[in-house]
Specification:
The complex is a heterodimer of chains A (66) and B (917). With 66 residues, chain A is mostly helical. Chain A is built from two helices and two strands. Chain B is mainly alpha-helical and 917 residues long. Chain B folds into five domains: 389 residues, Sodium/glucose cotransporter; 119 residues, no CATH class; 82 residues, no CATH class; 108 residues, Signal transduction histidine kinase, dimerisation/phosphotransfer (DHp) domain (Helix Hairpins); 153 residues, Histidine kinase-like ATPase, C-terminal domain (Heat Shock Protein 90). In chain B, strands 4-6-7-9-8 form a five-stranded mixed beta sheet. In chain B, helix 17 runs parallel beside helix 29. Classes of the chains: A mainly alpha (66), B mainly alpha (917). The interface between A and B is large, with 37 and 40 residues.
């Protein structure tokens, strides 16, 4: 099984990105009373980052390296 | 309409369906057509992470802390991104070493230590039994709630007696039966259970669909979508903080960390992720698909939580039950039943996998090592232990479920049960340093691990478990407020005065500090032993080496194939053992088991097969019982590691030596050939000399006898015979002189009277000496000499000898009417060259090569009368060589010959003017 290490490195970068985006202090920037489409901005932010993270992980994993 | 019989029948029908799926999965696996060998089933099976705690508890937690419930699912998502490095390595190590549990993994990593394995097992069991109790409680509670349909009522503490009077007990036993049936059907070295995985994947699907169904019902049926719920919630004052605050960020971070550890090291996660993994490529898809599942099951948590809070504003309904109570209060019986089944599937999935994983650990790392050590049981002498192993595991499953049930019955509504999910996570996180350190750091040691685990466990016990007992009223509550022995600094939840953290974060900080600190410090203090170093290399370098090279190098000893086969047969059963050996033999290209060699590789193979059945530590003990293993010192391990480079150096040296040897051999062979040649030449010489001497002797003797026997011979006749005798005697004398001469020259003992001489004189004198011979033969002799030549340094008599030899030879082979011989002298650079040319019979090329050898003459000596001794040219060449010249011949058969020699001019000599000076 060929495992190009660039994929692993991208995933580690995603981990770091996710860890930063989903923790203090960045998280605190979105703790407020605003709304996005009727959803509290904090909830919207966390779920959006989460979904983005999963999407990027899928992209990194499933992308074919030719 | 939702009566007790319907609910019970639905529950049992659901569990029956699980049995059917598991049975089908096992059947397909036996046929070799796996239904779980795809990444989607694998990712779904990982969702066993979501238990009843997720299904019901997430909503409950969201109702009190808003989005604070989420780190439990964000952590696994983040961790999944690191699986590419971490989990792949763990899976590969486990497959290479046939590791079947987390206890086995840690024990195997740290020198296959039974003590480490036992410790990990004990910690895991202590941490997990309350967790199982939590699942049983969820089943029991929700059953009672759904039974009250259409009323929404919170169940009270059970008054019914434990065990037989309590339906939860039957549920527990049903789950035990399932685990036993599909988890311990037979002993397998890989410990994989395809039917079980199929059932778990199905359960994951059911609980996801059930939760989403309830979520859609609440969000879009009861309310007008997400915005509506959040908008209404905002208008309730006490709910506003839940919508806008992230909560305590330290708690947030520590929960993220805990769940990152839990997704790897919970025994059930280990079981489905590592042990049940069919193909490590499935991990790729799971890395994003499993987080997607977590996202999907969490989307409706907040709407349900706020929907519930808005719907039951009085706080009369426990938020943990919203998933069930909201459909009930809206009179949706089938949805309520579906939600109940969803919760049931979340709880049963966890209980089944967890008990199987724990039973493997209890059997392999706790019970078997003890039993094998008890010499009185004579287990090592029993022929077939596979039945015993299965029995222990089945017993362990029942025991764990009974313990979980007892804990549930005794703890009941206590705080100890409610918070147990995170308490379990905190304990499981104690495995992280030993495992993560173990696969990336070679320096971790067995002692360091034992100290680290024990320290982490004790801190966890003191700061988290005992306080939960105190809050449940099982310990005096002032233990919390005043600390142990009334010492303020020892207050379990403000240890050493550390305040401002919640209890989980507080415990996590101190336990990790103790755990990692001890692990690293103790490991560094002493350093790994040889066995630990060997295992460390196998684990840390797992992705670098191929499976075949792992392990067997680090072993020396002797064993017999039959002993190993018998040993394996005792644990796997004789037939399975024989099959395993036969497939090993096939892989090795051996025809039969009997032709296998009991080498390190076979011993390692047997040990890894055994490790699958009884754990690596016990496997090592068992293999050691039939193998005479020589202990491996640290130095030797280091030597083995250094071996590669040494071997390389040695081989280079060896190559060099062998080249030198080859050169020497060639020289010797050459010398030997020359010696043999010389020896042969000497033999030839002696035989030739003897032959040459005998010819004249024979004729002298013959004529002497004639004269002796015939006194009356005529005078004429007598004179003729006498002259022959004289001539032959002269020839004999000449021959002997020449032989002696040659011998002297060759041995370097000849006397040389060198002086400055004029070569022209030598030629003139020689021509004069042989002139009569030429006249007799009627051969014309021409001499061509330059007017002046430089002097040379040579022995005049010897040069005369050469000239006479060449001239007389020319006369001999030129006896015909128009015979003509020319002797000429000319200067060629620093050399003088003399040519003696005749127009005689010539010499064939073959003869040209040999005429300068001793006793060799041109022509066939057998049929023709020899015309000389055959030594003349040999002596001539020796003489010319001696004075630094060269003698050679050019000839065409039938066209005459030209003998030539050169001699160096005397350095600095003046040209000799004139002739005869």
């Amino acid at each position: 099984m060929i495992r190009p290490s660039i994929k692993g490195q991208r995933l580690v970068a995603l981990f770091l990105m996710g860890f930063l985006l989903l923790n203090y202090p960045l998280l605190n920037l979105f703790a407020g009373s605003g709304h996005v489409l009727g959803i509290p901005v904090l909830y919207a932010y966390v779920f959006a980052v989460w979904a983005l993270l999963i999407g990027l992980m899928a992209l990194v994993i499933e992308k074919r390296e030719d | 309409m939702l009566t007790a019989p319907i609910i019970v029948i639905a529950s049992f029908a659901y569990v029956g369906l699980l049995f059917a799926i598991a049975y089908y999965g096992d059947k397909r696996a036996d046929e070799g057509r796996s239904i779980i060998a795809n990444p989607y089933i694998y990712a779904l099976s990982l969702a066993v992470y979501c238990t009843a705690w997720t299904f019901y508890g997430s909503v409950g937690r969201a109702a009190t802390s808003g989005i604070g419930f989420l780190p439990i699912y964000l952590g696994p998502t983040l961790m999944a991104a690191l699986w590419w490095y971490v989990m792949l390595k763990i899976i590969r190590i486990s497959k290479q070493n046939r590791i079947t549990s987390i206890a086995d993994f840690i024990a195997s990593r740290y020198g296959k230590s039974q003590m480490v394995g036992g410790l990990v097992t004990i910690i895991a069991v202590i941490g997990i039994i309350p967790y199982i109790a939590l699942q049983l409680k969820a089943i029991s509670n929700t059953f009672l709630i759904v039974l009250d349909y259409p009323e929404v009522a919170m169940p009270h503490k059970q008054s019914a007696p434990l065990f037989l009077g309590d339906n939860t007990f039957y549920i527990a036993m049903l789950l035990a039966a399932f685990a036993i049936l599909f988890g311990t059907r037979h002993l397998d070295a890989t410990e994989r259970h395809e039917g079980l995985v199929a059932a778990i994947a199905f359960e994951s699907l059911v609980k996801l669909l059930a939760f989403i169904a309830v979520g859609l019902f609440v969000t879009f049926w009861m309310y007008d979508g997400f915005g509506d719920i959040f908008h209404r919630a905002q208008e309730v004052a006490q709910l506003t903080p839940l919508l806008t605050e992230g909560g305590n960020y330290a708690t947030w971070a520590s929960l993220t960390f805990l769940s990152m550890a839990a997704i790897m090291f919970l025994p059930r996660q280990w079981q489905v992720t590592v042990v049940e993994n069919v193909d490590e490529r499935h991990l790729n898809t799971a890395i994003w698909l499993f987080p997607l599942y977590l996202l999907a099951i969490n989307v409706f948590v907040l709407p349900i939580a706020f929907g519930g809070l808005l719907h039951f504003p009085s706080g009369s309904v426990d938020a943990d039950t919203f998933v069930l109570t909201l459909p009930i209060s809206e009179q949706a019986p089938w949805l309520a039943l579906f939600a109940f089944i969803g919760g049931l599937s979340a709880a049963t999935g966890m209980v089944i996998v967890e008990t199987i994983a724990l039973s493997t650990m209890v059997c392999n790392d706790l019970v078997m090592p003890v039993l094998l050590r008890m010499k009185g049981l004579r287990l090592t002498a029993r022929r077939d232990l596979s039945g015993l192993l299965l029995g222990i595991r089945r017993g362990a499953i029942v025991l764990i479920l009974v313990l979980g049930y007892l804990y549930f019955g005794l703890a009941g509504e206590a705080y100890a049960l409610v918070s147990i999910g995170l308490i379990s996570f905190s304990l499981v996180a104690q495995f992280a340093p030993a495992i993560i350190g173990g696969i990336f750091w070679k320096g971790g040691t067995r002692t360091g691990t034992v100290y680290g685990l024990a320290a982490g466990f004790l801190v966890w016990l003191y700061t988290l478990l005992l306080p939960s007992f105190a809050k449940s009223g099982w310990l005096p509550i002032n233990f919390l407020s005043q600390g142990m022995f009334g010492v303020d600094l020892l207050k379990p939840q403000q240890l050493f005065g550390l305040e401002g953290l919640d209890d989980i974060t507080h415990c996590l900080f101190w336990s990790m500090l103790a755990n990692i600190g001890c692990y690293v410090a103790v490991s560094l203090a002493k350093g790994p032993s040889a066995a630990e170093h060997g295992q460390a290399t196998v684990f840390v370098d797992a992705l670098r080496q191929s499976g075949a090279t792992a392990g067997p190098r680090l072993w020396r000893g002797s064993a017999s194939v039959n002993d190993l086969l018998a040993l394996l047969g005792r644990f796997l059963g004789p037939e399975r053992a024989r099959e395993a050996f036969e497939s090993y033999a096939r892989d090795r290209g051996a025809r039969a088991i009997e032709s296998l060699a009991a080498d390190a590789s076979l011993v390692h193979h047997v040990e890894s097969l055994l490790a699958g059945a009884i754990g690596s530590a016990s496997a090592r003990v068992m293999v050691a019982s039939v193998v005479e293993e020589e202990p491996l010192g640290l130095d030797e391990v280091m030597n083995i590691i250094d071996e590669a480079s040494q071997v390389l150096a040695y081989s280079r040296q060896l190559e060099q030596k062998s080249r030198e040897l080859e050169a020497a051999t060639n020289e010797l062979r050459g010398a030997n050939q020359r010696l043999q040649e010389l020896d042969r030449l000497k033999d030839d010489f002696i035989s030739t000399v003897t032959h040459e001497l005998r010819t004249p002797l024979t004729s002298i003797r013959a004529f002497s006898e004639i004269l002796n026997d015939n006194p009356r011979l005529e005078d004429g006749q007598r004179a003729k015979f006498l002259s022959i005798i004289i001539k032959e005697s002269e020839r004999l004398t000449r021959l002997i002189n020449q032989v002696l001469d040659l011998a002297k020259i060759e041995s370097g003992n000849a006397e040389w009277h060198t002086s400055d001489i004029d070569l022209r004189e030598v030629i003139e004198d020689s021509v004069t000496a042989v002139s009569q011979l030429f006249k007799d033969g009627n051969i014309a002799l021409t001499v061509q000499l330059p007017r002046q030549t430089p002097q040379i340094v040579a022995d005049r008599d010897r040069l005369m000898q050469v000239m006479l030899n060449l001239l007389s030879n020319a006369a001999k082979f030129c006896e015909r009417p128009d015979g003509k011989v020319t002797a000429s002298l000319e200067r060629q650079g620093d050399f003088l060259r003399v040519d003696v040319t005749d127009n005689g019979i010539g010499i064939s090329p073959a003869d040209q090569a040999v005429i300068f050898d001793k006793f060799r003459q041109a022509g066939d000596t057998l049929t023709q009368k020899p015309k000389g001794s055959g030594l003349g040219l040999a002596i001539s060449r020796q003489i010319i060589d001696h004075f630094g010249g060269r003698l050679w011949v050019e000839s065409q058969p039938g066209a005459g010959s030209k003998f030539s020699f050169t001699l160096p001019v005397k350095a600095g000599s003046e040209l000799q003017q004139g002739f005869g000076t």
